[in-house]
# Entry
Amino acid sequence: MENIDIHHLFIFTNNIDDLIQELLTLGFKEGSNRVHKGQGTSNRKIYFENFFIELIYISNEQEIKKDICLKSGLTRRAYYNQNQASPFGICLFDKKKFEKLFKNAHKYKAEYLPNDMAIDVLSFEDNLSLPWTFRWEGLTQTNNKNEPIIHDNNIKELTSITFGIKNKDAELIKLLKDSANFKISDFPYVELCFDKNKQNKAYSCKFANLIIRY
# Structure
């Protein structure tokens, strides 16, 4: 899979300290982090040459339960254990081929965004095993400048991504056929393959349904 149209992957977690420590022990270096003002979440990130992983956690329960977050579907993902929802989200690059997919997308005007900006969101309320999917106008390249992308485990770039979902009846799957794999699963998971698995190594995280091959 040579074309990766996914700018980044987010993973909601209730165990941020344990998960980040697990990934650091695996040889990753941590990048920048931020608080999502008005959304009730904060993040920690790991960057690569063509992609990054965003680990998101609830930092303000009152904010994540605001009406604006509820309408976006993000709240259900934040409380993934209670809602049997996928804790994963994908940000797609702004490409013409996705125009149809996002034609009727929800416009999420998050408080932390500039006033003239909105995020196009597909929350998949009828299939919560799919990743919460979004984009914003003009996003055409990975913003990893000034971030650590040289890791002790020598992992460089994402070459494929696989999601475990309950069924494959979705337009998203058709449009992402060249960028992501989808497999039937009783529970949501994501598998990231870096550098075409040239080191022939695999790791299953203890604190997230995440498999890393490299």
